[in-house]
Amino acid sequence: MTCHSALKSLLGGATLALALAAPALAQETIKIGAVLSATGPASFLGDPEEKTLKLYVDRLNAAGGVGGRKIQLVTYDDGGDANKAKTFAQRLVEEDKVVAMVGGSTTGTTMAMIPVFEDAEVPFISLAGAIEIVEPVRKFVFKTPHTDKMACEKIFDDLKKRSLAKIGLVSGTGGFGASMRKQCLAVAAKYGVEIVADETYGPKDTDVTPQLTKIKGTAGLQAVVNADFGQGPAIVTRNYRQLGITLPFYQSHGVASKQFIDLAGEAANGVRLPASALLVADKLPDSDPQKKTVVDYKTTFEENTKQPVSTFGGHAYDGLMMVVDAVKRTNSTEPKKLRDAIEATKGLMGTAGAITMTPTDHMGLDLTAFRMLEIKNGEWTLAN
């Protein structure tokens, strides 16, 4: 089945009641907001997210919309600035009157926007990684990516399988890096992992050699984990190789794009990281239940944008489809009804995995949705 037919299937199955709905309802647009970091230091996140949303809104509308209603996408670029993000969030609520929000490229911008959507009682599906977005659960806030806690657990599970226990941790001090460091420290003992070195670096640091030199000199060190996203991990990876450290090296899902490989160059080879199946779509067995979804998205995105796929655009796809699915099930654009429907999402296959929300889980993914990857010859591969 092609991506187009898949979309038709997603939008199909309208009931007779829907077909006979009042003309005014049929013509009502579904106004969805998006505040993304399309430019600035987090553009590697926001750019594919924005391209994905625009691409799939156009495709959905061309296929007839959702229940006869067209989607109107209202987007703003916060440039990675949390204050701008909050201002745009207020505009989406007060002036644009959106019924749902898909966006928030970073943890920082997401956290700044959460109070706006909670107060307005408009469902907000974040595309950022930190667990603090959904723990504690907030009534109107959801997220599509795997959490930083899950990344720690997936990495530590892989280390356990490789009989590696003494770990060095090097983390960025930004929102995601600081949160992931906290989560890794909290779950390490559960996996029999001992953090024997713990160093940090700032978002503007261009050399992490001093911190890595300290880690390198730690007695008994068996592997190193870098908790961060953006350009920092590429710098850390290059410095790691320059120092001649040959121990296993792990990154987070915050680097799950070809841009990281391009920035790190040959130093990226051998790096392991947890990520969604999207990066290895073509390498999945035909029996994998996620294969069709990720292959369709990868093909559609790359053919239309002429850019390599990243998991970040996939998170935007998942968020949009969650809203579409909620509109279909409720036959409504009322924000509170959409919130209830999003929380009741069950088994919706996305690029990150099969999504099943509950009142106590506003992400809806478990560790099986993560794949352990290894970069070989500049390409993503499933780790052995």
Automatic annotation (TrEMBL):
Specify the protein name. Answer: ABC transporter substrate-binding protein
The residues forming the signal peptide are 1-26
Q: One of this protein's GO BP terms?
A: amino acid transport
Q: What keywords is this UniProt entry annotated with?
A: Amino-acid transport, Signal, Transport
Which InterPro entries does the entry mention?
A: BCAA_transport, Leu-bd, Leu_Ile_Val-bd, Peripla_BP_I
In the record, the note on similarity to other proteins reads: Belongs to the leucine-binding protein family.
Source organism (scientific name)? Prosthecodimorpha hirschii
Q: Which domain of life is it from?
A: Bacteria
In this chain the Leucine-binding protein domain maps to 29-364
